Structures are given as structure tokens and as C-alpha cells.
Amino acid sequence: MRFSLPPVMASALLASAAALSAAEWLDPAGAEPEADGSVLWYDLLSLGLQGRGWDASATATPYDRLPAAAEGKVPPAVWTLSHNSAGMYADFVTDATTLRAHWVLRSEKLSMNHMAATGVSGVDLYVRQDDGTWRWAAVGRPEATENTAVLLNGVPPGEREFRLYLPLYNGVSKVRLGIPSGSRLGRVAPRSGEPDRPVVIYGTSITQGGCASRPGMAHPAILGRRLGAPVINLGFSGSGRMEAALGELLAELDPALYVLECLPNMGAPEIRERVVPFVRTLRQAHPRTPVLLVEDRTYCGAFLVPSQAERNRTSREAYREAYRQLQAEGVEGLYYLEGADLIGHDGEGAVDGSHPTDLGFVRMADVMEPPMRLLLNR
Amino acid sequence: MRFSLPPVMASALLASAAALSAAEWLDPAGAEPEADGSVLWYDLLSLGLQGRGWDASATATPYDRLPAAAEGKVPPAVWTLSHNSAGMYADFVTDATTLRAHWVLRSEKLSMNHMAATGVSGVDLYVRQDDGTWRWAAVGRPEATENTAVLLNGVPPGEREFRLYLPLYNGVSKVRLGIPSGSRLGRVAPRSGEPDRPVVIYGTSITQGGCASRPGMAHPAILGRRLGAPVINLGFSGSGRMEAALGELLAELDPALYVLECLPNMGAPEIRERVVPFVRTLRQAHPRTPVLLVEDRTYCGAFLVPSQAERNRTSREAYREAYRQLQAEGVEGLYYLEGADLIGHDGEGAVDGSHPTDLGFVRMADVMEPPMRLLLNR
Fold this sequence. Notes:
CATH topology of the largest domain in chain A: Rossmann fold
Strand order of the largest sheet of chain A: 1-17-16-15-13-14
Number of helices of chain A: 8
Oligomer: homodimer
CATH architecture of the largest domain in chain A: 3-Layer(aba) Sandwich
Order of helices and strands of chain A: EEEEHEEHEEEEEEEHHEHEHEHEH
Number of domains of chain A: 2
Largest sheet of chain A: 6 strands, mixed
CATH superfamily of the largest domain in chain A: SGNH hydrolase
Largest interface: A-B, 46 and 46 residues
Number of strands of chain A: 17
Helix content of chain A: 10-25%
Low-confidence stretches of chain A: 6-20
Distance between the termini of chain A: 23 Å
């Protein structure tokens, strides 16, 4: 059993042609001009921020990943990590031939010893191509808590749609885009043929994006681009442990698909105790929303260190037990994806045997894309 | 023309079965015991250091990549970068079930903003499997200029062969391996069926390993493992520019293959001026040694930013001109590898559009391995 679908799931795989978007141009009067007047700075929030489960009316700051009401209900570590902007991005259209970013970080800890500052605290730009696919365009490399970077320069004239991803392991208090005065910046209009309901991915440091080289290379971001679907990254480093409060928060959302990938942070006893009630909470609020249980990736050292192999084995055994119990209870729309293939089989997909590099994240996306595409009917 | 071989090159691709190595055990009297006597620390140099073009009799310190005589002859930046231990490694055998590393770095700059400290300043451990292939085992994560890390713990008893790679963008003044007293550590005996003459790769920041997540993921290291050949990494960040002094230094070596991949650091005028005399210098000293000219990888932003595409185009045009001129002069054993495929075609292989991540380095190794295998007749 690599990926298990009940027989009823026989939806055809339909390609949906994404219509090109029409822009709603922002009023330059709302931008801040550079001292010499050459550049106009627009607040990123004026473009609409994506990748959030709760919008600014519910959160303490616009760049928070959990609502203000979650404080004190979720474990302190989860609350702290909810200020990291993992998975947040803005889509926009511009005819600018030069593009700058200005971003102010919340924490002075710009990097980790196994993850570059570009991934922890950088911004990452993609451009939408004529065929509707996204292609990497530029990265903003952080040097301090406040950064200004020229992302693009000398691009040929023409309107293009871009996506800017925000830092994975840091928070932001302010993000601005700078374009030459005279150029235009606009919101992206809703696109026909693309879903508005998001995918919600709940998990660990790996979900949050450790250790991608830049924000666009975390697997939730890669999958969002490939599937043409909004993705909400609810990865909490070291803290994806399926507490009841997290189940209640996830149930507040109304996604097209839940992906639950907490195993790297949970031992077998916790899995046995928490998975079943967690899924029940989601199912009570959303009787039909598919829920995909994803196993942990195999530790790269498991072939050599028995304790690592044992951890993979016992966690998976407990997760599968929970899956079977939920099925026996008659829970429908529940799917299971094994972890053995997630980061490949050569031991090279992670920086430390646990956290994927870009190589591991691409491999994860390769494994997760087909079942997610099926469940999203895309 | 992706990879061009003269018709005379028709060697069959022969697999060589690597014989398992016999160890020459080190005398514990030469090790330094931990205060409580539980651990014996052996200097890495007592195992024999590989990946060096010049041994300690010629270099100012044992971990230098260029001979002391090169100081003042090579550009100052090259001299400074020659103190980085990029590409150096030690092979060893041990029956220890716990393995520690202690390493002292030369520079306090442990990371770069687009490259994690594990790659810049870390150590990276591989183990040789029964089939002769290498598999990742552990990484040593740097926290300061002096580091001690438990690389392995709880490994089942048995003799195993390991390879420890040293930092890519930092130098080391001292490296030690710690094993439980009572365990043994030994040198690896020369292996039948494997070449003793190395591959010499001369190039830029990319050759040096920017921006691999750990030392074993730079493409010279990957290729060394895959080909079962010693590789000497002469990558100098921002400074791979084919000066005459570098040609004379490379000519002092006697490799099985020269790989020249300096294009990312050279514009067309420099390429026109320097490539032909550089290759002539190598050829005069070594009439038969194959020389592989590798083009630059395509900038990930070249599809969008015309100046990047132009830089790729003009550099390659000049490199190919040099190749043709050398062929016209009757230089034999010269081979050419195009760069278009090096880091893939999806724009995701680099952190900044230029420097490969582990994803890009694996793709580079995939492209470079077959022609190098052919030229090494392995």
C-alpha cells in the first residue's frame, strides 16, 4: 500500500486551463515615493495576502498564521511559531521593468546552522508564464532585520504576473514592493478554473519549510504552484503534535483538502492518543472534506542507525492503526500516503538526515502531487 | 553538440568491482584520551588526507589547497581561498559504534546569506556499503569556530569504512575523530580496481561548492563518490579566471582528467585571451591527459532577463571558439560539454539563479558523470 484510495474514488484527472488574470491597478496616491521620486513603494498588504487561514480581522497582526484567539489555547511554542510567515505570499501584476522589495523581519535570528538565511528570512519571487505555470525569477537575500533588495532589473517591457513568497522561519512586520514611478502595480483578479478553497497542510518543521534554500522551495509552496491551488502552511517546527486545540482551529477553516503530516514530531503513544480524535474533530465540522494522512519521511540514517529505523516503524504502525480505526468507525473521505518514497532512496535528500533540502522537497512534491491532484479533482 | 567526442574515443564503459579494503590500524598511543578516558581522539591527518593536489611537504599548512610557492604568484583572492578545505576528505575504517568529530575552523564567518553553515563550515560523513557505493551517514553542524559533534551513536557492531568531508567555504586548523577507547581506527588500504590518479576540477564558486547544504553535496564530491575516483577541488569563489599562474600550478599535477569549468567567472574577452594558452600549458606538461571543457550553467533568470541570457551566450561562444582553435592546432584529447542541461530546465536548481543547491548539484553530477566516466574509462 503506497497510496490508498477507496474504490469509490474514481474521479478522472482533469486539466483545467487557467485563464489569464485581469489586474485591478492600485492607486499610486497610496504608495510612498522614494526621496528622489524615482521609486514608488507599495505595501504588500494592499495586494491581498495569500496562504493565510485567518485574515487580518482575526489575527493580532496581518502576518500571523493563527488567530489572536488561539493565544493561550495552543502550546506556547506553536503560538510563537505562528508569527513566522511560512507559506504566505502575494500575487500581483506589474508592467515594471525593475522590481525592488523592502522587508522588515521580526527576529534577528536570520538563519539556522543547517538552513540558509535566504530560506529562513528571505523573500522569493516567481513569475507566471504564458502557459500558466510558475517559474522562479529572483530571491531577496537578507542581511539584517531590515532589507532592501533589487529583485529584477532590465526586464523587457510588458505586463507580468508575479508571486512573492515571505520568510519561512522568521516573521515580517512590514513588506513593500518598489517599482519605478510611472509603472503600475495591480491585484490579481480571481482566475476562472482555479479553486478558491485552499489546501491546508498541518505539520512539523518540514512542513514549515526546514531546510529549503528559499521560501518557494518548501513542499507546500511547490505543490501550490504545481496544483494551481492556494495552500495554507500550518507547519510548526518541533511542535506539530495534533493537540485538541489545533484540531479545533483547523476545523474553523473550510479547505478543499486537509493534509496531516505531523509524524516526525509525534511518537507512537501520542499518535495513538491524538490522531483519531483530531480527525473526528475535522470530520464533525466538515463531513465531506478529504483528509490525507501522510506518513513521516524515512530518516536518511535509518539504514545504519537502528533507533532511527525503529522510530519510523513505530510511528507508522500507530498512524496506520489510527487510519484503520477511523475507517472502521465509518469515517469517509480519509486517505493515506506512505512515507517511504518521500525524500528518495539514496540518502541525499536531507541536510541532516531529517530536514529536506531543495532536492528532498522536490522529491516530496513529486510523491505528493499525484494523490493531491486526484483529491482536488484537478 | 551536447558532448563532443572525437571518433577515436570508443572505449567501452567498464564497471570495475571495487575490492573491499584492508585496514592498517592506528596505534592508540598516538591518540589523545578524553579526560575521563572514555574517548580516544585521533588527528585526522594520521589517516591520510585526500582531495589535495599538493601534500603537506609543499603546503604552508596541511589543509591548504595550493603549495606555499603559489603565494604571490596567484591573485590574492585565490591565495586566500586556497585556505578553504573544499573537496578535502579522509577515508577511514573503524569498528566504533559511536563516532565523534572535533574540528577547529579558521574563520568566524560560519555561513553565507545564501549558504547554510553546514555547507560552509560543517563536516559531512558517508559510509561505504557492501556493494562499494557510498551513502550519507551524518553531518556535523557548526556552532562556533571550535566544534565537537556526535556524528554517530548506537550503530551495530562491525567494521565499516567511512569518508569525512571537510568544510567548503572555511578552512580548518585541526580536525580529530573521537571513538570509544577500546574501538579501533585505521587507514584505508589502496583498493584494487580503483584509480590512484585523481580528477582535477578547476573552476569558480560553483566548483568550490556554493551553495551545497553540506560538503558532500558539491558536485566534485558527488562525482568522486559515483566514479570511485579521487577528486581535487580547485574551485575558487569569484576567482576561477584561468590566469597563467594557475595553468602552471595545474600542470604540476598528474591527474587522470582535467575538468575546466571557469566560465561563470570569465567574460568573453578573458575567455578569448586565456583559455587557449591555459590548455596549451596543461598539454605541454601532459601530452595525453584528457581535458574536459565544461560550459557555464544557464542562469535561472536568463529566460526573463536578457542580460543574463546574453552573458551565457557570449561566454559560450568564446569558449567554443577556443575549443575549435585548439583542435585546429592539433591538440588531442580535448573534450567539450555544453552547459544548457547542467542544473535542469525548471529554474529551481539554484538558490539565487546562479549557485546550485543540492538539487542543482545532483543535476550537474547527472550530466557530468557519463562523459567523465567515459574519459576515465571506468
